[in-house]
Design a protein that fits this description.
Organism: Streptomyces glycanivorans
Order of helices and strands: EEEEEEEEEHEEEEEH
Helix content: 10-25%
Protein name: S1 motif domain-containing protein
Oligomer: single chain
Number of helices: 2
Number of domains: 2
Strand content: 35-45%
Structural class: mainly beta
Strand order of the largest sheet: 1-2-8-5-4-9
CATH class of the largest domain: Mainly Beta
CATH topology of the largest domain: OB fold (Dihydrolipoamide Acetyltransferase, E2P)
CATH architecture of the largest domain: Beta Barrel
Distance between the termini: 34 Å
Number of strands: 14
Length: 196
């Protein structure tokens, strides 16, 4: 999944929302918006002491059907999570965030590194997560969660805590896996590097 750094959405209507996210009817002004795209909240885009807040597009729906992307000049219902949208008004423009707030992801997480994360949003393609205590965003593809491989394992839910390993630190957000096999492979790889 390739996310863009130049896409923008214009809010037509906030259907409902709270301090953790909500649903907006939007029009795509530029770029191609995909599930997982990060946007800088316009309420924090102005200078001042308020910390930056990124919103994640976790679902895109056109004509009652979930779709993988939205491009200009189309409109859609978009579910946003990760922060308050109660301050969004008609005409507000959401601009793509280059990366989550804080130091660059690659400076904090590297391939084969293990981390504990909290699920912040769930979509049909995977889960957005935040590294515990680091304010670093990550993404777990649906096939990298054990629920994809076993009907006995429940699907991820917002608030779940997972132990993961970094698969691709060059992506933004960084790509992670919660599969035991990937964690074991990373441990073997780290052990080999230490031995040389």
């Amino acid at each position: 999944m390739s996310l863009e750094v130049s896409c923008t959405l214009q809010v037509y209507e906030v259907e409902y929302g709270d301090d953790h996210g909500g649903v907006c009817v939007v029009r795509c002004l530029s770029g191609v918006v995909r599930t997982g795209q990060l946007f800088l909240s316009p309420t924090t885009a102005t200078p001042g002491p308020a910390p930056a807040v990124t919103l994640t597009a976790t679902r895109i729906e056109c004509y009652g059907r979930e779709v993988p992307f939205l491009d200009p000049p189309h409109t859609a219902r978009v579910t946003l999570s990760g922060g308050p949208i109660t301050g969004l008004t008609r005409g507000a423009v959401l601009s793509a965030a280059l990366r989550p707030t804080g130091p660059p992801v690659s400076a904090q997480l590297v391939n084969d590194q293990e981390a504990d994360v909290v699920v912040t949003a769930v979509a049909s393609v995977g889960s957005s997560v935040e590294v515990a205590g680091a304010a670093v965003a990550g993404f777990i593809d649906q096939v990298k969660h054990t629920s994809w491989w076993s009907e006995e394992v429940p699907a991820p839910q917002v608030g779940d805590q997972l132990h993961v390993v970094v698969l691709d630190d060059s992506r933004d957000p960084v790509r992670l896996s919660a599969l035991r096999s990937d964690i074991e492979t990373a441990r073997t790889s780290r052990a080999r590097r230490r031995a040389t």
